[in-house]
């Protein structure tokens, strides 16, 4: 027996056909409108920035200080094993670039790992996204060149300030080997660590509580502060470093890129060490420039 429309019961034949969903309206949305009791679909918002807290930054500072002190002490005692350092005092070893920079170069990877673990434990995105690394791509050389230009400008303006003839950091330049070690460290690992901490971790926290202007100035003040001992806390060179820190932080803000400020920092330090290399006859006559 076949069923034709004429043979269907009246209540089936007259049942209205379901109306199609309006264009652009997903079935889930339509069912939610038809059934108010249906659970709403929540759309996750962008991850909070920064994902870390003030106490995370404090923990990183404390950990970094402890690790650097521990590695420096180890390096001081290990150095006494070698004949050339056997009769050296600890005060002499503490200003030997091969010992001090070696200790810091060994400590920095551990500090970087600690920073990585802190950030990843707080963030739902990759480490590079979390700290806004954002590599500038083809414009990377321009940031290095900008750092060189910044060094030339700051050095020219600093000539009008009462810069001391000798600074505590000059004591690390004992010989050509020490100078080359300082230069390599100064244009690679040192800028990476400083930018990772100041522009990557510290600035976002300060910006959160003090706004952009306050964040930029306080970040630059902290940046100048860690260089204070190397500069004998003389106000003129510290002011110069503060201005440099402001420029680095502004670049990080404008470009939303820690990598950009890192490249600029590398260029700045490269210009300083290049000038020292030239003026000291390839680091062979450091007494001409270090006092």
Features:
291 residues, mainly alpha, 2 domains, 12 helices, 0% strand, globular, disordered N terminus
Care to give the gist of this entry?
With 291 residues, the protein is mainly α. The protein contains twelve helices and no strands.
Can you give a write-up of this model?
- This protein is mainly alpha-helical and 291 residues long.
- The protein folds into 2 domains: 49-128, no CATH class; 131-291, no CATH class.
- The protein has helices at 10-13, 27-34, 54-79, 90-93, 97-122, 127-130, 140-158, 176-187, 189-226, 235-255, 258-279, 287-290.
- The N and C termini lie far apart (113 Å).
- The model is unreliable at 1-9 (pLDDT under 50).
- Secondary-structure content class: mainly alpha
- Which radius of gyration do the C-alpha atoms yield? 30 Å
Strand content: under 5%
Strands, count: 0
Q: How many independent structural domains?
A: 2
Separation of termini?
A: 113 Å
What is the helix/strand order? HHHHHHHHHHHH
| Main sheet: strands, sense, barrel | none
Low-pLDDT stretches:
1-9
**Proportion in helices:** 55-70%
Helical segment count: 12
Mean pLDDT: 87
Shape: globular
Topology:
Elements: H1 10-13, H2 27-34, H3 54-79, H4 90-93, H5 97-122, H6 127-130, H7 140-158, H8 176-187, H9 189-226, H10 235-255, H11 258-279, H12 287-290
């Amino acid at each position: 027996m076949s069923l034709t429309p004429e043979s269907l019961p009246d209540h089936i034949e007259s049942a209205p056909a379901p109306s199609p969903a309006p264009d652009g309206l997903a079935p889930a949305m339509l069912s939610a409108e038809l059934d108010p009791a249906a659970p709403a679909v929540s759309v996750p918002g962008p991850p909070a920035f920064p994902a870390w807290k003030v106490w995370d930054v404090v923990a990183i500072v404390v950990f970094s200080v402890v690790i650097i002190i521990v590695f420096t002490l180890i390096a001081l005692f290990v150095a006494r094993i070698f004949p050339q350092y056997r009769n050296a005092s600890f005060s002499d070893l503490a200003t030997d670039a091969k010992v001090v920079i070696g200790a810091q170069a060994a400590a920095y990877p551990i500090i970087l790992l600690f920073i990585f673990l802190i950030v990843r434990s707080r963030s739902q995105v990759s480490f590079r996204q979390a700290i806004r690394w954002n590599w500038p791509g083809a414009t990377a050389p321009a940031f290095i060149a900008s750092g060189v230009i910044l060094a030339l400008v700051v050095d020219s303006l600093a000539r009008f300030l009462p810069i001391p003839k000798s600074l505590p950091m000059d004591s690390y330049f004992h010989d050509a080997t020490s100078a080359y070690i300082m230069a390599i460290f100064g244009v690679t690992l040192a800028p990476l660590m400083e930018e990772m901490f100041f522009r990557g971790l510290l600035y976002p926290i300060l910006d959160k509580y003090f706004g952009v202007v306050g964040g930029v100035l306080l970040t630059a003040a902290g940046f100048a502060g860690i260089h204070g001992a190397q500069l004998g806390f003389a106000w003129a060179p510290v002011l110069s470093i503060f201005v440099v820190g402001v420029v680095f932080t502004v670049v990080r803000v404008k470009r939303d890129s820690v990598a950009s400020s890192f490249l600029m920092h590398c260029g700045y330090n490269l210009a300083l060490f290049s000038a020292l290399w030239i003026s000291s006859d390839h680091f062979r006559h450091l007494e001409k420039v270090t006092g």
